[in-house]
Amino acid sequence: MEFRYLGNSGFKISEITFGNWLTHGSQVENDVATQCVRAALDAGISTFDTADVYANTAAETVLGEALKGERRQSLEIFTKVFGPTGPKGKNDLGLSRKHIMESIDGSLSRLQTDYVDLYQAHRYDVETPLEETMQAFADIVRQGKALYIGVSEWTAEQLRNGHALAKELGFQLISNQPQYSMLWRVIEEEVVPASEELGVSQIVWSPMAQGVLSGKYLPGQPLPEGSRATDEKGGAKMIQRWMRDDVLTGVQELKPIADEAGLTMPQLAVAWVLQNPNVASAIIGASRPEQIADTVAASGVTLEADIMKKIDAAIGSLAERDPSQTKSPETREG
Fold first, then answer.
1. What's the pLDDT tens digit per position in 176-196?
2. Class of domain 3-325
3. In terms of pLDDT, which residue wins out, 237 or 185?
4. What is the DSSP letter of 139?
5. In the chain, where are the structural domains located?
6. Is 54 labeled as catalytic in the residue annotation?
7. Distance between CA atoms of residues 4 and 330, nearest Å
8. 212 vs 57, 131, 249, 333, CA distance in Å?
9. Alpha-carbon dihedral angle through residues 302, 305, 310, 312, given to the nearest 10 degrees
C-alpha cells in the first residue's frame, strides 16, 4: 500500500480508502461488513470513510465495532455531516451550528473514538450561512474532536470561499470528496484547478462508476443476478445512467487495455483515478471480503501515457465532463 499527503498538510492517508457505505444495518450485513473491514486492514488499508447518514447512523456503529482493538494512531477515520439522521426532525440535518455540534458527538460515540482524523461537510448547505458552518468546524478542531476538516461535492467557488474562512478562523480545509471516474470527470475543469491552487486534495468516491467499470455488465445481455443494477433499494437507481449499450460497449473496449497493462478491470479503474496528482485516495467498497485484495493492487500502479490515451479513446464522449454537474441540494430536503 502506498500513502499520499492529504492537501497541504503533513497528514498521510492510504491511496485506497475503505468506504463503509451500508444500505441496511441487519446482523448478517453487519457481519459481512466487519469481515470486509478486517480484509481491508489485512490488505494494508489504514484509512476508513463513513458518514452519519449511512444506514441512519448504523454504518458508523458497524465501523466502530469492526475497528475496536486496533491501534488508534495507526488509523485514519473519516466521517461526514449534513444528511438527515435520527428521527429526521427540523434540526436533524444540514450544516447549522446546532446540527454539526450535536452530530460530531454522536459520530464519536458510535465510532468509539475520541476524535476523527477528518470531519467532512457531506454537501454544501445553501440554507445556512457559510460563516456559521465554518465557525462550528473551527470550534470542533479546537476541542480536539476533529484533526482536519474536509468537504464533499463542493464547487470551485464554494471551495474557495470555505478555504478563505477556514484560514481566517485558524484551521485547515484540506480535502474534497467528489465522485470521479473514467466516466464521470466533472471535477477536472474547475474543481481540480481550484483545489490545486488552494492546497486541497480529492478523496474520490465511485472510481468504478458504481461497478460499471468492472466490465461485468454486457451490452444487450441480462443483468447479473445479485448485482448492484438489480438492487431496487438504491443501487439500481444510482447505476442507471450508465446502463446504456453505448456506454457498456465502450467499457468492454477497456478489457484489452487492462490486459495490456497487466491489470484487472477494477484495478485499471482505480489506478486511473490515482494518476491524477490532485487525488490523494480512491474510496472502494466491498460486498465480499475477497473483493478487496484485488482492488488494492491498484495502489502504486503507474499507467503509461499510451495506456491513458487508449482509455480516453475507448471512453471518448461517453464521459460526463460538465462542471455544472458538481452540485449540492438546492434545499436541505432536496
1. 999 999 999 999 999 999 999
2. alpha beta
3. 185
4. H
5. 3-325
6. yes
7. 34
8. 28, 39, 11, 29
9. 90
